[in-house]
Amino acid sequence: MSESPAARLRRVVFVNRYVHPDHSATSQILSDLASSLAASGFDVLLLGSRQRYDDPSAGLPRDDRAGAITIRRVGGTRFGRTHLLGRALDYLSFYVAVGWALLGLLRFGDVVVAKTDPPLLSVMVAAAARWRGARLVNWLQDVFPEVAVALGEPRIPAPAARMLAWLRDRSLQTARVNVAIGERMAERLAARVPTARFVVVPNWAHEDAVRPLPLDESELRHRLGLVDRFVVAYSGNLGRAHDHATIFDAAVALRAHDDIVFLVIGDGSGHRALKARAEATGLHNLRFLPYQPLDRLADSMAAANAHLVSLKLELEGLIVPSKFFGVLAAARPVVFIGDPDGELARGIRAADCGRVVREGDGAALASALLELAADHHGCVAMGARGRALLDTRYARAAAHAAWTRLLAEVADDGAAAR
User: Fold this and answer.
1) pLDDT tens, position by position, 395-408
2) Which residues have C-beta within 8 Å of that of residue 219, sequence separation ≥ 6?
3) Which of 112, 144, 339, 364 is the 20 to 30 Å CA partner of 308?
4) Contact of 170 with 122, CB cutoff 8 Å
5) Domain count, the chain
6) pLDDT digits (tens, 9 = 90+) for 212-259
7) Half-sphere exposure of 291 (CA within 13 A, CB side)
8) HSE of 282 in the Cβ direction (CA atoms, 13 Å)?
9) Residue 295: which domain range?
């Protein structure tokens, strides 16, 4: 008897703590890829928690659908991201719940893709995949425990860090392929696990949600009364991995320049700390807004003349800031605060689509912003070159095509082995 068309569908299960309709970066990019794969004929299932990134008590439904995509959500503790102990308990309960769910959901020959939220998720997913005869792919958005060690919070004793890294490396070695989002990340991990297979597929922007718009078409810019100002924006999560002190120092240096305004949109520990420092010092050139809805993202990105992207020096090669791609999509200059010799810094200089400032050098950031504010046409040209970089190197269609080929290869290898 011939196999039915439905049975021939390649089944892919993605595992991430936050899934549709959550607005976090990892969730949005996952939903984007899942939709593309479903349209290409894959049977796609998303497995996540019932929380939202900004609302641990959300209580999203256990079973759901988004178009052709099936969604399963597991329960667990809901302490949220505010306190490290509560976050750790949320991680632990998710590991247990998702491991149990995978034992019931996975079928022999399935492809299961583990993202990196929560950290070390691949360890649990690798065990379930091995038990059920599924094929593991790791999608590496960051590198843990190295990120935690570099930040020093939570403090992980050296023996524990080595054990966690060993477990992580084992999951990388057992995967059919490990997808890193940056060259430096792939190189760093390949040096640790030379027998594992690594490929680089960069993240991408929501090109339908973020598109180039002229400054005067931004409703947010008009609503905030910033039409005649040079607006420097930071849009997205400003957390422990991102430097906010340099932004504050630059704002202090530029406080007498009434024509320059910093607009900080989003949330995170750094967002809250920066806001508290601005209020404590009466710094009025820093303004703060919460996350903007996805359908208004193009407008909020267009409100700025230039956008800030930040990554702490010690995290180079461990994280690639996803907001970089959104800035390119909006056709605005990128002002990167981080390692001047890092992967993003090199790319920005090569494409001449922005400026690079070393973390901690507030004076250099203030100087770069003054230079940009005095050169409107130069800013427009930089933004156009950034958009061209996105369209050639970081295009969504190219990334989706790479993922489709990769997952089809893994799935077909599994079918051939049966």
Assistant:
1) 999 999 999 999 99
2) 299
3) 144
4) no
5) 2
6) 999 999 999 999 999 999 999 999 999 999 999 999 999 999 999 999
7) 16
8) 1
9) 215-393
Helix (DSSP H) and strand (DSSP E) numbers for the chain: 15, 14
Predicted TM-score (pTM) of the model is: 0.88
| Separation between Cα atoms, residue 330 and residue 382, nearest integer Å | 11
| Cα–Cα dist 413/409, whole Å | 6
In terms of domains, do 129 and 181 share one? yes
Q: Are residues 114 and 196 in the same domain?
A: yes
Whether residue 376 is found in the same domain as residue 318: yes
Helix axes 158-174, 183-192, angle to 10 degrees: 100
Phi, psi for residue 149 in degrees, rounded to 5: -65, -45
Can you give the CATH number for the domain in which 143 is found? 3.40.50.2000
Q: Cβ(91)–Cβ(116) under 8 Å? A: no
Q: Are 230 and 259 in contact (CB under 8 A)?
A: yes
**Sign (positive/negative) of CA torsion 182, 290, 240, 76?**
negative
276/286 Cα distance (integer angstroms): 11
Are residues 266 and 142 located together in one domain of the fold? no
